[in-house]
Structure formats: structure tokens, C-alpha cells
């Protein structure tokens, strides 16, 4: 097998305020092209883990390698450059509400363009064409010049995906991408992410609430509990006992179709 | 466990125990002394207010006590002793304490009596409070404990001493306030002397047309004053607001800058623009000119806008900053695409609102010599030129109404 694409070694995150330990000595590897799903209860450290990988949050201890580069050693400037290769989508979409869909999608190219031009809102023609192609891909071409806050939740998340696509990423971090959406819309959004994974070969790390979604889309699952890695394996390996271990004794599995 | 405890007691020197005693003693001193001071103070305030009302209503004079001061002091202390011994006093309420028997039961009458009698020797000379427990509590067998509602039926406020105290305090304060500010003669004049202002009101129907041109000119000066002050205030307040936003100013130096700016701004804001106008009139020595007024409005607007802008910055959604940062954008790009889109409309809205306030303030500032229509109004009022004053008022009303309407409409569009 090839070299692992992403390596997380002994990752620990302690929040100064309140001395909360969000991640405790978490280690795992991801190969290129995998669709890794992270499950766990709210507050188990899923979001922190994802944000450590593109260093939106600085890890307290441990090392992270992406494609052989130790990103935990990069200077802020180098890290900014590296982030272009890592797309990210969020639970609450995090779009510029008052701006058009087009502007939102173009922000995915900020790292590739000179600062002064982007400050004036100037993007090259090729970027604009790419933006339209990506919007067409997520089925929102006719919404290109509509304000982002006029779209439905599912549509907004698809704009988020288009923004990530603009970066032409190798890795996609998806932080609870469908938690704010209804079940039917969830699947449509998940399918766009799956498409990115299968057609563009983007490695995906997604945190998900529902085990049924994790089983349906993940090629591998890891589980966090109170900041510790408690499971790492294939989706089928999670049986009733494992499930209770991850989610606690009182938990019942809920299906989402 | 028991043996360890015993050994510890033996091991500890006499000095240690003496220090312990003093430590607990000083803690008890602080607690009980503040209780006593609260209760004595509460009674004294009530007495002073009551006396004030009685003296004011009966003689029309201003006085604060009906009795000699030493007698009042003695009475307040005695009342506090009674209150703390026989009921749940104001101080007990504030400190959330209550007087209970050692076994947690309700105090018996005999215990209350002992507590009251020994209160005088325990609390008034202060020093006995250093004993833990102090003499009045030791002898009565009562102790102060954290108050709990457990196993009790709540009593309505009018059946508690503190409730009655607060009700009486509120009543007597209002009566004192009314009697201190309004006299009978004032009231009589209010209802019989309305005719004196007739000229003023009449001018609303038939304005003095000869001064219209001059008034409109003064009106324009007022609007210009407000615009100048607001425009320059925005230039200063926008950069300042970033330094005054808690979420952007992290770290020790950042927090220090934040504190200094916010502190200075709130001090500046607490001084009325009229006072600033007088201040600047003295400073720049321009009499009967709008410059001092503009400066006054400018200073006040900077502090107000900085606060409003900074609060808006503090409530921006951090998610968008994360999202834009995650694309590989640098700080300037994050500012342009994540921060500014969230603040630009509120900023414009606050600016309009402040401009609207400044027009009204410019009128007031003018009265002290800051120029514009306010100064014209003051000039006519001072010369008893009621008709002209009424005409000017008419224009002020029209202006304020129009600007109010305009800025409200614009702000609604921005929302």
C-alpha cells in the first residue's frame, strides 16, 4: 500500500480557559482517497480534531503530517499557503449572507490571487468561469447572482461545497455538514461530498452525528469519546456493544433514511 | 480517622491554635460588623427620610432630623439590635443568613432575649466580635447560618419585616422627593399663570415672517454642524472601534488598549454635549460661532460611535472568519470578506442614527453659544421676544421631525 496521506500523531488539545482537555493523545492515519467519518457525542472533540488539521485551532501537543509535510511545524505564512489544499465545509455553512452566491464561491480562490486585487473584489476571468462550472456541478448555476441568505439550508451548504471545490483541494474537512439540514436534504448534500471523493479523488474527513449516515458514506469510521479515540475500523465492525461504548449506555440508534 | 484527628490536635502548637482563633475571629468580625452596619444604616436612612418629609410638609423648611443626632444614633443602634435578635433583619437578608439554634430549630423567646441583651456588649464595642463565636451568640446558643427555604412555606412580602421596611422606604422616598421639589405655590402658578405663554403659542399660528430668512440660514448652519461633526467622528471612530472590540483585542497589550479606549470613551460620553460646548468655547475663544459646537458634538459622537461600532464588531459571527481563513486567505482578506460584510450596514445605520441625534443636540449646544438655530432661539428667549422664539421653535420642530423620519426610513432600508 502507498504511504498514508494524513498522519495524526499523539494529538492533544487543552483549552487554556477552564483547562478543558478536548483531545487526548489521538493518533490515526488516513490513506489517499479514503472517506473517513468521525463519530461521537457533542463535545467529544470532533470539531476540535478537524480544526487542528488545518490549524484553525493550534494543537497543544502532537504532530500532523499531510502528504509528507509536517503542518504542525509550518509558519503562519506557510500554513496559509498550505490551507489552499484543504477545503472545509461547516455545520452552519458560514457564508457571507449579504453577498451573492458568486462572491461566496469566489472566496475559495482568495489564497490563489494577489491580495490587493481581491480587496477590490477583482478575480481573474478563469476563476469566474471555474466558479460557474462549480455552481453548475452543485446544481445552483441559476442562483449565481442571488444573495446567499435567500437560499434554503441545503442550497447554502451546496454553495459551501462549491466554495471548497474552488480551492481544488486534495483534502476536504466537513464539520457536521448535514446536522442543520432535514433528512432528505442531508442525503443530497452527502452525495455531492461523495462525488468529490469518488470523482475528484479528494480525501474526505467528515464528522457526522448519525451512525446510519456514517455507515452509508464512510469507507472507515473513527469514534471519539471525551477526546479519546475509542474506535478505528470498518463501518460494519460497529455492533450494538461498540455503539453503546461510543455513545453511552442509554443511547438508542436512530435511523436516518 | 479519629486517631489522626486527635494526633493533629496534639501536634499543633499553642501558637498555631492561637492564630487559628484570630483568623476565625477576624472573619466573624467582618461578617457580623457588616451585618450591624447594614442594619443600623437601614434604620438611620429611614429615620432621616421620615424626618425630612415631616419637617418639609409641616414647616416648609429643609431639615434632616426631628431629634438630636446623638439620640438618633442611639435609636438606630437599638433598633438594629432588636431587629437582628427578634426577626430576620435587612442585613440578614442581604447576606442570606438567619439566626438558628445549634440543632437547627427556631430560636426560643428566652434565647432571643439573651441575644438582644448581649448584642449591646458584643457588637457595640466591636472587639468582642473577634471571639468565635461572639458572646451574644455563645450565651444565647444561637448561630448565624446560611438561609435555606428547605421545609418552609414562603411568606408574602407584607408579612416579613424586611418587606415592610422596603415598602415604607419606597413610599417615604417618593413623598420626600415630591415634597423636596414641588411646592404648593408652584402648583397654583402652573394652573393660573398659563396665559403668560399665550404670545409664544400664538406665534405658531402667525409666525413672524420677517425673520424667516435668518431662521432658515441658522437652520442650515445647524444641519451643517451636525454633518461636520458626524463626518469627522466617523473617520476617528471606525479605526478606534477595532481597537475597542474585545474579541479582536487579545493578549495582554491588546486587552490594555481595549480597556483604556473603552474607559476613556465612557468617561467622554458621560459628559453632556452642552458641557463640552462650554468647555470648547473657553478653549477656542470663538464666541457666537459654530466651531465650538461642532467640536462638542464631534467629541461626543466619537465616543458614542466607537462604542456602538465596537459592540457590533464583538457580535460578529466567528464562523465566517473561520471559513474564509480556511480557504488560505490572509488577514487583510479575512477582514475584507469575513468582517466588513458583517459590519458595513450596521455601521452606516449607526452613523445615520448619530447624525439624527447630532441635529437635535446641535440645537441644544447652540443655546450656550455654539451657533446655529439654538443660538437664535436663546437670543429671542432672553430678549422676551416670544413671537420670534415661537417662530424659531416652529422651524426646529419641522427640522427634527423631517430628519427623524428620514433617518428612520433609511435605517429600515439598511436592516
Topology record:
The complex is a heterodimer of chains A (257) and B (415).
Chain A: E1 6-15, E2 20-30, E3 35-39, H1 46-53, E4 61-66, E5 69-70, H2 76-83, E6 86-89, H3 101-106, H4 115-119, H5 125-137, H6 153-166, E7 171-175, H7 183-199, E8 203-207, H8 211-217, E9 220-225, E10 228-233, H9 240-247
Parallel strand pairs in A: 3-8, 3-9, 6-7, 7-8
Antiparallel strand pairs in A: 1-2, 1-4, 4-5, 9-10
Helix pairs in contact in A: 5-6, 6-7
Chain B: H1 2-11, H2 14-59, H3 69-86, H4 90-95, E1 97-101, H5 109-123, H6 135-140, E2 142-146, H7 161-181, H8 184-192, H9 198-205, H10 212-243, H11 251-270, H12 273-284, H13 290-314, H14 318-326, H15 331-370, H16 373-382, H17 386-414
Helix pairs in contact in B: 2-3, 2-7, 3-5, 9-17, 10-13, 10-15, 10-16, 10-17, 11-13, 12-13, 12-15, 13-15, 14-15, 15-16, 15-17, 16-17
Can you put this structure into words, describing what you see?
The complex is a heterodimer of chains A (about 260) and B (about 425). Chain A is an alpha/beta fold. Chain A has two domains: about 1-85 and about 170-255, 3-Layer(aba) Sandwich (Rossmann fold); about 95-170, no CATH class. Chain A is about 35% helix and about 25% strand. In chain A, the strands form two sheets. Chain A has a six-stranded mixed beta sheet with strand order 6-7-8-3-9-10, sandwiched between helices. A four-stranded antiparallel beta sheet of chain A has the order 2-1-4-5, covered by helices on one side. In chain A, β4 and β5 form a beta hairpin. In chain A, α5 crosses α6 (about 155-165) and α6 (about 155-165) runs parallel beside α7. Chain A is globular. With about 425 residues, chain B is mainly α. Chain B has two domains: about 15-170, no CATH class; about 200-415, Orthogonal Bundle (MetI-like fold), CATH 1.10.3720. Helices cover about 75% and strands about 0% of the residues of chain B. Chain B has a two-stranded antiparallel ribbon. In chain B, α9 crosses α17 and α13 (about 290-315) runs antiparallel to α15 (about 330-370). The chains are: A alpha/beta (about 260), B mainly alpha (about 425). The interface of A and B includes residues 84, 92 and 109 of A.
